[in-house]
Amino acid sequence: MxxxxxxxxxxxxxxxxxxxxxxxxxxxSFMSDLDVQVPTAFDPFADANAEDSGAGAKEYVHxxxxxxxxxxxxxxxQGLKKEFSYNKILKDLKKEFCCNGTVxxxxxxxQVIQLQGDxxxxxxxxxxxxxxxxxxxxxxxxx
Length: 143
Fold this sequence. Notes:
34% helix; Translation Initiation Factor Eif1; elongated; disordered N terminus; five-stranded mixed sheet; single chain; alpha+beta; 5 strands
């Protein structure tokens, strides 16, 4: 197949000059033989949206530290599944790390566990060892 980027009037004149392809190309057959590909819209986030909408969507547990006053800090744990008993988890966390804590009901985030002190690493290892959350589903935030 010969690819030409010449206007049709110039093409017929050029082909007639050389006489090589006189019967092969005429205007109607040449224009109808061209395959036109119209570019379609490409959605780069289609795969990501398909993964998030399925039943295997990852639910992250967020562990954050908040600075109170001076050297005092607060560790918050949010995103645990609702089927777990927050009070029992809190009781074990308090006993394990020798700190005080509470379960707070937040209108946007649901139930949030609060612990005294910076317990981010301790809480993440505890949740993984207890089998509550997988390690890849834990996000640790803070300084």
